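Re: the multi-chain job from yesterday

Posting the exact lines I submitted so nobody has to dig through the queue logs.
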Amino acid sequence: MLDHTSKKIKERKALVVNPAKTCQPIGAMYAALGIHNCLPHSHGSQGCCSFHRMHLTRHFRDPVVASTSSFTEGASVFGGGANLKTSIKNVFSIYKPDVIAINTTCLSETIGDDLPTIIKDSEIPKGKFVFHANTPSYAGSHVTGFSNMVKAMVTNFSEGKGDGINKKVNIIPGYTEPGDMRELKRIVKIMDIPCILFPDTSGVVDSPMTGKYEMYPKGGTRVGDLIDTGNSIATVALGSFASEAAAYELEKRCKVDAHILNLPIGIKATDELIMELVKITGKDVPYELEEERGQLVDIMTDTHHHFHGKRVAIFGDPDHVIAMTEFTLSLGMKPVYVVTGTPGISFEKQVQKMLEDSHLQGMVKSSGDLFALHQWIKKDPVDLLIGNTYGKYIARAEDIPLVRFGFPNLDRSVHSYFPIVGYKGAMRIIEMISNALLERVDRDAVDEDFELVL
Amino acid sequence: MIKLKNIQKILEEYPPKVKKNREKHMVVKGLDEKHEIEANTRTIPGIITNRGCCFAGCKGVVLGPLRDVVHIVHGPVGCSYYTWGTRRHKGRSEAGEDNFLSYCFTTDMQESDIVFGGEKKLREAVKEAYELFKPEAITISATCPVGLIGDDIHAVARDAQNEFGIQVLAFDCEGYKGVSQSAGHHIANNVLMRDVIGTGDAETGKYSINILGEYNIGGDGWEISRILSKIGYHIVSIMTGDGTYKELKSAHKADLNLVQCHRSINYIAEMIEVKYGTPWLKVNFIGIESTIKTLRHMAKYFGDQVLIDRTEVVITEELASIEESLKIYKKMCAGKTALLFVGGSRAHHYQGLLRELGIETVMAGYEFGHRDDYEGRDVIPYIKMDADSRNIPELQVTKDEKNYRLYLSPEKIEALKKEMPLSRYDGMIKEMKGGSYIIDDLNHFETEELLKKLKPSLFCSGIKDKFVAQKMGIFSKQLHSYDYSGPYAGFKGAIVFAKDISMGMNTPTWSFITPPWKKIPMLEGKIVKEVGAC
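And the result, structure tokens for all chains:
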């Protein structure tokens, strides 16, 4: 497995091998699925749309439907205006969504299609919405695409004066699983805080089987609520890479205060979220949450010997990786290699600081790839790998246990139904890490050291 | 005719322009003699097609499986990323042999590369790839923006080839070329034919063959090779599942070319025949009867009694080994119906296997087949070339005076043509039952409507369709990825397929869809009781 990856590291300036990111439009497509009765539309040649649907479908094992402008060579030279107008007409008459959320690709961005003008000149039935986000694949990553689409939701829908008239808190959950979005809604519900979560893919890509296929499932943030985000008390944006652009946009447009937090993965980050919500709303923290937190600390204490001092490599999307790095430190682990494929110097700064504060030396890289990560591991191995499905090649090559974390998870199921955020999610992560490490202890033990109780 | 009504109803839902377009892509078998279908035309924007792009057809399908080659994708990160490990073209290498199948290589173009051009970065990337991996060859595949910004990938390839002394091949497979994956097949075929095939000089044995258009999904190619080797064939090269650049170079030295996937590789099959004199045989290793038929055709082509006898021995042995399991699955499948919608060949190839299991195919369609895949190669002279396909280059080859040779005399070939599909393919429609539907470039709306109206037991399609059907309670088998199972080809594969679909159609989970409280009239019962109590 990966036999051509050598220990010897040669600097690469141009060739990326086994990337730790993918391109913008898939993130935008995912975000758009978080609007109720919305059809994502890909303005480019149809290959992108198929690839993005394919990948999301494999991750969620649920239908992911989106339309495309299906550029031909002619449109690529003379512009895709006619393709988009035809698309909008066909989509509304055949598929009848309430909203079409358009993302762009490297094709339409390179030729410079003017989307606002094309949309303005299109036939849009009364009461229906068409909006777009520019998502050039040659900038940033899928996380950037998600961020751009969420920002576009604000630009196109949010109205209000930020006077908190609706008594709600906006929550932007980041590029997370529907299980996480459900957990966030549960937390604010038990805190008795009315909220608008957007985008919200719960009930969309984790829809039940009923014997009837629903093209637009029950879930997704309603357009009315998107508009209402401008009337909220505050916006809590989780994960700066995925969520802060929209929160700042909302602050700019409607004067709703933006509160940027880390993704609430692990105890510290969840504490911060709860404290911020208390600060914003003045609400008390109910016993139910306190109990969950206490249970989590109890578990962490009971099991600390499982992970203490273990060297771990973490890769994936920046918001996830930043939060996970912090959590592994809280567990007494050593996150020695920390990589994201998404560009952004703030990632390196944040992670470096965490490591320094813990007196740890490690390699940290944004715009990194899995080939480089593998080379580091070859030189100086780790006890655990935390990352998406693509980590399984390295895990196998180097015989390291892998905890599947983040997007995409193509070779295991059920992950999208359960949270990794909040105290509950932290418990689940501990269970995953413990199980991975202990399975390895069992596998490697000689008979006389094979323990019944661990 | 009820059958026609179903299609009419679907078409009536469309805006007039869409209706006019789509009705040409739909045929009911037996309605007229000609069965002319429109295919390989541009996709209707916004229709929710299943199609992919030219890049997918070139790099994803034809080139990607060549395991000893570093395939560099020149573009932003997505295109390479989505073709990394997602198509299950398996490959294994002997110790010391190159195998890059678990890798993904890209120039990861950034904004500055779009603005100032990406040629410099590509040059550097090829150099780095060469220095790091020392592969047999390198391919460069273009993606959408490359053609638009005018990067000269051919100049980069030429210079790198001179500098490093290995072949570096450039493919103009920008995603917007043509109307589907199909254009990419053609582009890949052209370059492999022009620059690779014919450059090698490997020794070939008796009964030497190439297997064309077989990508070893889930190990299909290995099952086919197992059977052929058992009989005594010498496989010179496989295009391209578990294939190598090294073997491909000597493909011109085989005595017969087998064509499994007609759509993706017929260009090479035809060109080899013109240039080197080797005829091709349309084969089908999917299904037991088709496999047997294919093996007998092959034996007859070589005409050697030892080979013919050996073929029969192997067939008997193989049949005996699957007989028992086949009986079980036939019982589980009998009387069921299926809809088939797969890329450019499987929608045809699987019909025989399904029939053997007792399953009737009531609708079949291709994403990107051409008219010849539907109607047979006889219609090729009548296919109108449209503007979208005109830009895909046609490679003209001529007789290679040095390497041209005829294994059989032209007279013998002519005689054999009457008995087997030599350099001929009759298409899908001919094999289908009267009253069945043939629909090209089926879209999401049509899929949903047909599933509701026809209520098949089985829907064979891809990942994007799978969960749509299953939400309705209809088992959907992926015929691209085989749902991570396989092989499905050959004798053993037929049993694996039969087992998989029997399992899928009969899994206990279907019975849980309706909750018990929706099956039993609970409320009613209580009211009656209460009334009684009064």
